[in-house]
Amino acid sequence: MSGTDGSTSEGTSRAGAGRTSGPTSGPTPGSGSAAGAGSASPGSRDALYDLLRGYEGRPAGASARGRDPVNTPMIRHWCEVLGHPVPPDGSAPATMLQVWTMAGLAGREGRTGAYDELLGALDGAGFTSVVATDCEQEYAQPLRPGDEITFDALIESVSARKTTKLGTGYFVTTRMDVRVGGATAGTHRFRILKYRPGAPAPGSSPSTPSERAPSERAPSERAPSESAPSERAPSERSPSHKPRRPRPVVNRDNAGFWEGVAAHELLFQRCDACAAPRFPWLPGCNACGSPRWSAVESAGHGTVYSYVVMHHPPFPAFDPPYAVVLVELAEGFRIVSNLLGVPCDEVRIGMPVELEFLWADDALELPVFRAAPEQAAT
Q1: CA neighbor of 172 nearest in space, from 153, 187, 194
Q2: pLDDT at site 201
Q3: Is it the case that residue 14 has pLDDT exceeding 50?
Q4: Which domains does the chain show, CATH number per domain?
Q5: Whether 201 contacts 302, CB under 8 Å
Q6: Band of the pLDDT at 188, cuts 50, 70, 90?
Q7: Cβ distance 169 to 105 under 8 Å?
Q8: Half-sphere exposure in the Cβ direction for 273 (13 Å, CA)
Q9: Residues linked to residue 323 through DSSP beta bridges, in sequence order
Q10: Tell me: the pLDDT tens digits for 23-52?
Q11: CA quadruple 42, 43, 48, 53: dihedral sign
Q12: What is the DSSP string of 233-289?
């Protein structure tokens, strides 16, 4: 799974001698330019950047010791989950480096005041959104059962202001040094983007049909295309031998959504008090608390807001690798779904997509998305 943790990335991580980096669905420091909306103009001085750079080199986390020594059961479990053979010499796979630093469900009170101040300064300047972008690992020596690790973290760097497709902000990189007996065993760098979301793209405002009640919309205004998989007969929808997807939990709070799916309508809730859109369905507004709401049908036009490519662990009903996308609809809400019509390694943030309905099996129909025709053709 491509993610922020290089220790669990396989297939999409870039590997080199003694070093690996795991990309996520977010941007990277080189993916944006310093110029653009919200960026410091050429020749001007960015006072906030000057302040943020003052935190470079300061501790991000207190020194700590791993909760458990490197051990054979954890190595075996990790290898089983990722489908990775246990190394013949019994050592831990190199990309398990971060595993030995994790605190478990109880967590660890290890963040320093300097790191909190840095994030607070960004929040105070309006850069309140955050996305993990990537991590990098370097390996100095193998870890073997019985090794007891210690580690500490520092704020390694803060980038100049960058403009990305998500918005304008600053990349903050922390570095964790892992040691055994005082000697360096490896280094783990973790990078986030603290950003201010950009303005919606022109033409992304809700279209008129989407704001009308489902019963008032003409069939020609509905989102599913004429070639949608849902038009096939049940006997043609899926092979009978293929494992079924997990069944959704339907209750009184979300039954209306699934009734919409059955009618080929992607319904979201709009608060009657403050007009905030919300999804998934909830009994009350998370913006103003009002319990009053109306169901509104989405026109089904959106863009890929984020995504992840799934490699491991395998699930019987899915054929890896495949993309799981977070789609931002034109009406202002987001939904997690699958993306059709484009190879998973060609999915990109900002890619236009259109709603379809897919029969996953003879008893389960789901809303999915297909890359817009101009994207699928490129």
Answers
A1: 194
A2: 59
A3: no
A4: 6-197 (3.10.129.10), 208-376 (2.40.50.840)
A5: no
A6: very high
A7: no
A8: 9
A9: 309
A10: 554 566 654 443 333 445 555 789 999 999
A11: positive
A12: -HHHHS-TTSPPPPPP---TTTHHHHHHHHTT--EEEEETTT--EESS--SS-TTT-
CA 12, 17, 18, 19 torsion: positive or negative? negative
Within 10 angstroms of residue 74's Cβ, the number of other Cβ atoms is 16
Closest CA to 343 of 358, 361, 321: 321
Coil, strand or helix: which one is 195?
strand
pLDDT at 299 over 90: yes
* 69 touches 121 (CB < 8 A): no
Q: Which of 199, 198, 201 is nearest to 169 (CA)?
A: 198
Could you give the CA distance from residue 167 to residue 184 in angstroms, rounded to a whole number? 37
Task: Give me the mean pLDDT over the 343-349 stretch.
Answer: 94
Q: Which residue has the higher pLDDT, 220 or 112?
A: 112
